[in-house]
Design goal:
The chain has 19 helices and 12 strands. By secondary structure, the chain is α/β, with parallel strands linked by helices. Among the domains are: 264 residues, no CATH class; 46 residues, no CATH class. The protein has an 8-stranded parallel barrel, surrounded by 4 helices. Strands 5-4-7-8 form a 4-stranded antiparallel β-sheet, with no helix packed on it. The N terminus is likely disordered.
């Protein structure tokens, strides 16, 4: 959703002062008698980010599924990895972004393991016949969402058509699920029915006027039921049936992970899609005329809208005053459902709980505003311009008010988490009050080694990271570790081969990033010779430096583990290869390949010697 700062860029002055309570000398060496104590072992954990769509397994249907994730959980248990970090798994919208879900409760059926024995009513022959329809998508390099969704949907429709033959036990389980989850499942099933009825490509504000409010929508469906009750109930039942399967498989996956002492880590997007059942049925909880996003960051961006205005994510803003008045019931239910599956979770863009940058138009109109002055833009919006919502951090009073707002909201979430571990995605330009406040709440904030520098440009040593932090070199919105190094190395090489004035700032940034990474990992720096290319030795030093840090959590992306130069998402863009990355190998293929096994063995060894193994 967001673009982070390029390597080597510093936080705003003062943002990390509490992390570095000492001065560095010219070589970046901290005074040894003032180093903070390393936290005792026990809570220190190693993690691996593996998006649910990325794993492969024999016989899958072109995308990762719960059975493939089970194989990765077993791999994690065997290698001392304490947790598997996932991206959001709620049902995607049309853009297939896991950060634009159509429900805060419903899970995406695309991750279902669809096999005979897993899905009531399906036979092995059904799956094999349908698998042939995948064609090249079955083993493609990237997830082909349209093809995969069509094949999986057809199999689920077939299973539902036979559900009456599945026996009384399955029927009783399904009926119990529908009753227990009725408070969200009934609205969700109705919303999916209406999406199907009016065309999946339309948002709810484009539906006929007879269906644009919850009351009218329910009345419309009742009229349809009068005509053909069996048909309506059949479709509503189908959507509930699919969710029953999703929750059944994910809860079983959670139980398996618990049994082998591996945690599943979830992700809570800051927003929910404008076109979602949450917004449709609970619009009193949202500002529908404002969309959340981020301001322009002053970095070199190719997108002209981003350059001028920032990023407009299109998510409606929360009516925090209304939510607070009702005890944050929507958030409490959301978090409670999440923790049925996840023992820990990330709060996406936690800065938005304090204040958020907002646009008075939806993203569909972004092109209208490129090149306009503020006066010209205001003329199109009735005088409103993008701004901080509720208030900016421009005065001490406003900062105190924003901190107080965040405190009330986050304490409600911590109560709902009921002991689950909470991590804050606090990247970007972080107000100075945020990280001390997160520390007070025992919410772990991110630490990106090549972004955490003092005023002299030297990186924070790993043993000076706050204990309650989440250290990683990259998120899904950034290049993996190997691609960062290689990208910087090649930028410097190209500049030397063909110097141009335009690339001067890039080569300076690239050199700075390699210097900071080298200082952080203890890699020898040559002040006169060329930078070394990315090697196995450099990779291991960087991984060991991260795992040796004082951070409670140290995490690699799976792309960084295997040195795959792939980015999972390019923020500010849609389509292309975003959210489509698939690992080149199954777990069995990794275990059969000497080189890949060696990579895994070394990772396990580093986890063990840095005392992050779940067994330590």
């Amino acid at each position: 959703m967001r673009v982070g700062r390029a390597g080597g860029f510093k936080e705003k002055k003062g943002a990390d002062r509490y992390v570095l309570p000492y001065d560095f000398g010219i070589y970046g060496t901290a005074q040894p008698d003032r180093l903070p104590p390393v936290h005792p072992p026990g809570k220190r954990q190693a993690g691996l980010l593996v998006p649910a769509f990325s794993p492969r397994r024999e016989g899958d249907l072109g995308i990762g599924d719960t059975r493939a994730l089970r194989e990765w959980i077993d791999w994690a248990a065997a290698h001392g990895v304490s947790f598997i970090q996932l991206l959001p798994i709620n049902e995607n919208g049309a853009d297939e972004s896991p950060y634009s879900a159509i429900s805060s409760a419903a899970l995406d059926p695309i991750y279902l393991t669809i096999e005979a024995g897993e899905i009531p009513g399906l036979l092995a022959g059904d799956v094999e016949r349908m698998r042939k329809q995948l064609g090249a998508a079955a083993n493609a390099e990237w997830v082909d969402y349209p093809v995969v969704r069509r094949v999986k949907r057809n199999l689920l429709e077939l299973a539902w058509s036979r559900f009456d033959e599945a026996g009384p036990k399955a029927a009783q389980e399904f009926a119990k699920f529908r009753k227990k989850e009725a408070d969200w499942l009934e609205d969700y099933s109705l919303f999916r029915f209406l999406m199907e009825h009016h065309g999946e490509h339309l948002t709810w504000d484009q539906w006929p006027a007879t269906c644009q409010t919850p009351e009218k929508a329910r009345a419309h469906v009742e009229k349809l039921r009068v005509r053909d009750a069996a048909a309506v109930d059949y479709r509503l039942g189908f959507f509930a049936f699919v969710q029953w399967l999703c929750f059944k498989q994910w809860r079983a996956l959670r139980a398996h992970a618990d049994a082998v002492n591996v945690k599943l880590m979830g992700d809570v997007p800051i927003g929910i899609s404008w076109h979602s059942c949450d917004v449709f049925f609970h619009r009193e909880e949202f500002h529908l005329d404002w969309c959340g996003g981020s301001p322009p960051e002053g970095m070199g961006q190719s997108d002209p809208f981003f350059q001028q205005w920032g990023q407009n994510w299109g998510i409606p803003l929360y009516r925090w005053d209304h939510m607070e008045a009702n005890g944050f019931v929507w958030w409490r239910k959301r978090i409670a459902r999440l923790t049925e599956i996840f023992r820990m979770f990330r709060l996406d863009h936690i800065l938005g709980f304090y204040r958020i940058y907002a646009f008075p138009w939806r993203p569909e109109r972004n092109q209208e505003f490129i090149g306009l002055s503020h006066e010209e833009a205001a003329a199109k919006t009735g005088g409103r311009l993008p701004r901080w919502f509720l208030r900016p951090d421009d005065t001490l009073e406003n900062k105190a008010a924003n901190r107080a707002d965040g405190d009330v909201r986050l304490r409600a979430i911590m109560e709902a988490a009921n002991g689950a571990e909470v991590i804050a995605e606090d990247l970007g330009w972080v107000p100075e009050y945020v990280r001390p406040h997160l520390a007070d709440l025992d919410i772990a904030g991110f630490r990106i080694p090549h972004w955490d520098c003092n005023d002299h440009g030297h990186p924070t040593p790993g043993n000076c990271f706050p204990e309650n932090s989440f250290a990683t070199y990259s998120t899904h919105d950034h290049d993996p570790l190997n691609a960062i190094w290689r990208g910087c190395f090649h930028a410097i090489q190209r500049h030397h081969e063909n110097p141009t004035e335009e690339s001067g700032w890039q080569v300076h940034g690239a050199s700075n990033t390699l210097r900071i990474l080298s200082e952080f990992a203890g890699i020898p720096i040559s002040h006169h010779g060329p930078w070394p290319p990315f090697t196995e030795g450099i990779r291991l030093k960087l991984v060991k430096a991260l795992m040796s840090s004082n951070a409670r959590y140290a995490v690699l992306m799976v792309t960084s583990l295997f040195s795959l130069d792939v980015r999972i998402n390019h923020p500010g863009t849609s389509g292309g290869t975003n959210w489509r990355f698939r690992l080149p190998w199954t777990i069995k293929q990794i275990e059969a390949d000497g080189h890949l096994q060696d990579v895994c063995r070394k990772f396990a060894a580093v986890i063990s010697i840095t005392r992050r193994s779940s067994g330590n």
